[in-house]
Amino acid sequence: MNLAAVDVNDDLLNNEIVQNPSPYYSMLREQHPCFWNERWRGWVLSRYDDVYFAMHSPKFLADRITPWYENRLNAEERERYKATYEALHSFVVFTDPPDHTRLRRIFGRAFTPKAVMTMKTITEEMVHWHLDKWESGKTVDLNADLAYPLPANVISTIIGARREDLGRLQNWAEAITTLLLAGVGDDKRLDRAQSAFIEFKAYLKVLYGERVNNPQNDMMSWLMEVQRNDPLLTEDDVLHSCIILLNAGHETTQTLICNTLTTLLELPDELEFLRKNPQSMKTAIEEGLRYNGPLKGTIRLAGEDIQMHDKLMRKGDRVLLLMGAANRDPAKFQEPERFIPTRDPNPHLSFSHGIHFCLGAPLARMEAEMVFNELLRRFPKMKVKNTIRWEPRILGRSIAAPIQIELG
Amino acid sequence: MTERKLIRINIDVNLCVGSGMCVSSYPDKFALKPDGHAQHIATTLDEAACQEAEELCPVSAISLIYEIETP
Lengths: 408, 71
Description:
The complex is a heterodimer of chains A (408) and B (71). Chain A is α+β, with helices and mostly antiparallel strands and 408 residues long.
């Protein structure tokens, strides 16, 4: 047994680590690059090259839903949560090839940079709709008044939902996201998510029906077009894909907006530079993703026995890939602890890498760029009014509500 | 009248994230290298396939280079 390992704090929700993970990440990278975390019951990878390798290697599996459903639930529970399993099991983020290859094809045409340009109009209108209510001198809650509703409303509208239904979609998304981020262990969370899956799917089925003979210029119609030309894809695949779109495009973009803006507001020189050079906002957003990305980590399962840094990960073991640590690895990034808005190239892993690379990345980038440039133009002197406190989460890196901003 | 002729396909390794969209669409024309980046492996340039791969790439890492011919 490695004695040094005994000294390593294995509480990933420890407040000191949650508030400032950098020193902990640096210790893991240097001394325990492949660390068995006894409390979390899994391996933790923290070096850039290792996280990158695991993201690209077929030995690391993304389907952590099937083992939970088959081994952790009894027959009665399996029957009860069948709808949840079926929906989650068709989320591209939780599938491996060949299922992944088939499902990912649905999105092939949905998020091409060209398609995203057509989403620009919707985003622009939504950004103005939200910011027009804001006035200089007032204090707003960045999260509740903008970062939370904006991405949800944008993606719901892109999918094809009517404006009067946006509130219902937000509630469904919230129930499903809570299940995914907080874990599947709790029956109440499971029941809430299950109802959301059933209601949301029924709602989407109506949209689907309306578009069979009458395609629109929206995501549902684009996905249906792909399905029509691909005999391996089903109506359920399309409906489940819309569910994942709402969830994926919702909380992560919300967190990207909050994390990056609050980081920037603490750096007056960089902020002033960006106000004068809005064309540099693109690289600043990449730096925001690297510096305080919405996800600290993502989970894989070892598909076979894997040897790494003299440790043996057994087939079936959980592995936490710490993008947060990889993104500040001095072996990959110069001055990794500094926020450099013009950093380029910036090969951060916040959108993952390989076949699970975030398919909504072009939309997230476009939304963030539009929001930040518009905010800096309208309110050049805005300030954060309260202390930033990070939420205790293993995978997500998000700021506890509220985030009060005084508009100036 | 001028005609465009596709003479090369470029994959920018600084942009490519190995999403495999090109590979899954045309497995006989694209492959992932051991470092995770995509590579064009066909010996000839299939213009329709290359154009589709360019369009599908989620990070716009693929670019096509044409030669303008004036007959």
